[in-house]
Design brief:
- The complex is a heterotrimer, with one copy of chain A and two copies of chain B.
- Chain A is built from eight helices and four strands, in the order αααααβααβαββ.
- Chain A is mostly helical.
- A three-stranded antiparallel beta sheet of chain A has the order 2-4-3, covered by helices on one side.
- In chain A, strand 3 and strand 4 form a beta hairpin.
- In chain A, helix 2 packs across helix 5, helix 3 crosses helix 4 and helix 4 packs across helix 5.
- In chain A, 26% of the residues are buried.
- Chain B is of the alpha+beta class.
- Chain B folds into two domains: 70 residues, Arc Repressor Mutant, subunit A, CATH 1.10.10.10; 93 residues, Arc Repressor Mutant, subunit A, CATH 1.10.10.
- The longest helix of chain B is centred in the N-terminal third of the chain and has 14 residues.
- Chain B is rod-shaped and about 95 Å long.
- The N and C termini of chain B lie far apart (87 Å).
- The chains are: A mainly alpha, B alpha+beta.
- Chains in contact: A-B, A-C, B-C.
- The interface between A and B is large, with 46 and 64 residues.
Chain lengths: 264, 216, 216
Amino acid sequence: MTTDQFQEDTQRVSERVAAEALIVDVGAFEGPLDLLLTLSRTQKVDLRQISILALAEQYLAFVEQAKTLRLELAADYLVMAAWLAFLKSRLLLPPDPTEEGPSGAELAAHLAFQLERLEAMRNAAAKLMARDQLGRDFFARGITEDVQRVRRVTYTATLLDLMQGYARIRTKDDFRPFILDREAVMTMEQSLARMRHLIGFAGDWTDIVSYLPEGWELDPVKRRSATAANFAASLELAKEGKIEIRQGEVFSAIQIRKREPRDG
Amino acid sequence: MAKPDNDSLFEAPPMAEQERMVEAILFATADPVSVTELTGRMPHGCDPAEALVHVRKRYAGRGVHLIKIGDAWAFRTAGDLGFLMQKETVETRKLSRAAIETLAIVAYHQPVTRAEIEEIRGVSVSRGTVDQLIEMEWVRIGRRRMTPGRPVTFVVTQEFLDHFGLENARDLPGLKELRSAGLLENRPPPGASQLTGPDDTEDDDDDDDQVEMFEE
Amino acid sequence: MAKPDNDSLFEAPPMAEQERMVEAILFATADPVSVTELTGRMPHGCDPAEALVHVRKRYAGRGVHLIKIGDAWAFRTAGDLGFLMQKETVETRKLSRAAIETLAIVAYHQPVTRAEIEEIRGVSVSRGTVDQLIEMEWVRIGRRRMTPGRPVTFVVTQEFLDHFGLENARDLPGLKELRSAGLLENRPPPGASQLTGPDDTEDDDDDDDQVEMFEE
C-alpha cells in the first residue's frame, strides 16, 4: 500500500464517517432548510457566492445515501429533494421560452436568500443570547416592598337623580294613605314662638297656665299638650335668660315673669 | 483596606469600585447582608466595612437609605416616603338612594336639621349618610338653629353647586316644574306605606310652617 | 408635568424631592414602573419624566443603574458586577434551539405570523415552542395581520426587553445591518410557493385556535 493510496483511503473513510454522522444526526436537523444550510458550509464560501447547483447535488446525494442506508426521511425532506431535482434540471437545461413560471436562476436566488436569512437569524439569536441577561448578569431589586392598593371610591349623582329623589319623597307624601290629625298637639316650637311674643306684656309673676292658647284649656288632651309645651318653652326662655321661673311648693302653680335686662 | 497579611496576587479594587460592589450586592439580595458575607462575596482584599461607610454617606438624605439591621445591612425606602408605597385606584359609584334623597332635601330645604330631614323623608337618617355627603364636600354644617337644643343645620356647598352646574340652590326646579317635567312618579314606591308609619305625622300645613321658618 | 389648568392648592414638591420619590418607588420594586404609574403615585404636579433624567444621571457609573425598558424604568445592577451575584443567579429554563431561533425571529421580524416564522425557518413551528415563549412572557400576541385569514402576529414583550437589557426592540444587536442587507424582508418565493403551499389552510385554523385559547 503506497502512502498515496493510504491517504486516499483515510480520506474516504473520514468522508464516509462525516456523511454517516450527517445521516445519523438527521433527527437533529430542523428541517430541510437547516440541512441545506449545514451542507452549504462544506462549500466553505460566503453564502452569497454559494453554488446552488452544487448544493442541490449535495442534498440529492445525501438523500440517496439515506435511502441506501434504509433510513426513513421525513416527507418534507423528500419534498425538498424533489424540488431541488426540478431546480437542478432548470439550472442545467437551457431555458425553454415557451415554459411559464420563474426561471431556474430566480428560484436559486430565492433559495440562497432563504439560506442567508436563516443564517442571519441564527447569528442574531446567538448575539441575543450572548447579551447580559436579567438574573444572570444583571439583577433586579432583591427586597421588594408591597405596594398597597388603596381603592378610593368616588360617588357621583346627576341633577336628574337629585330631582327624581326629591320628587320621590314628595310624591310619597301625596299618596300617603293615612294622615294623622295633629290638631290636638302643640309643639314646643309653636309654644315658644307664642310665649316669646307674649312675655313682653307680662310685668309681674304670672301662672304659666295663663299662657295657654285660647280654647286649649277646655279640651283635656289639648290642655295637656299645650301645658307641656309651655313648660318646656319656659325652661328654654329661662335658659336664654329672658324670664325667671318660680314655684312656691311642690305641685303649686308655676309662675314666670320677664327678666329685666341688668344693664338696661 | 488590603490587610497586611493578605498575600493575594491582585491588588484590592479601588474604594470607589468597592462601593459599587456593595451597592449592587445590597440592591440585589433578598435579605440584609452582613459584613462577613460581603467580605466573602467581594474580591480578595476588599474592605466592605469601609465601603459601607461611604455608601451610607452617599445615600444619606436620598429616597433610599442604607440601614443596619442587627449586624447586617440593607437598603430601605426613606421613612418619609412610605406614602408612595400605595397605589390608588379610583372607582366611581352611583350615590345610594338614601344619600340622594338626603342630599335633595338639604338642597331644597337648606338650612335643614337632621330632625327635619327625617321628618321629610319619613325615615330616620343614618349618621353615615350625612357623613358621606359631608365627606364628599357636597354638604356642610351651617349655622345652629336658634331653637331648643340648638341643632346644627346642613347646607349644600359650592362644590355641590359646581357638580350639578347650579348657580345657587334656588335654581333647583320646584315641585310644580318637577311635576310638569314628568319627574314625579305617579305611583308611590313599593313599601312606601310602611315607611310612612306612625312617625310620619306632619301634614302640609306643617311643611308650610317649616318653609316659613326657613325663609325668615 | 404640571398642567397649566392645575389649580391644586399645593405646589409640586421641589425637583430634588421628586428625585427622592422616584428613587424610593423604583427601589421598592423589581418590575419596571411606567411614567404614567409614577405620575399616579407621586403628589399632584410632579414631573417624574424630568426627575428620571436626574436620577439616571446620578446613578451613571454606580453599582446600580437606572435603565429604560419600553416606556418604563427600573434599577438594575451594573452588568460588570454580575460575578458578585452567584447566589442570586436564577437558572432560566434551558431553551431549545428551535425556541431560541423562534424568539430571535419574533424579535427581529415583529410583528410576525406563524406562517412567516415557518417560512424563515423552513420548518413548521411546533405549538409548544411558541407556547413556551408566551409562557415565559417573552412573546405575546400582537394585532391580527390585515391579510386573508387575518392571522395573528407575535411580538416581544416588555419582559423580553427587560431580560435582555434592551430599551426597545430597535436596540436589538445588528438590527440595522440586517435590515439594510434586506434580510428582514418577507420576500415571497418566485412563482407558486411549493414550500408553504399545502400548509396554508392549516395555519389559519391553527392561528384561530390559538387566539381562542388566549382570548378566553
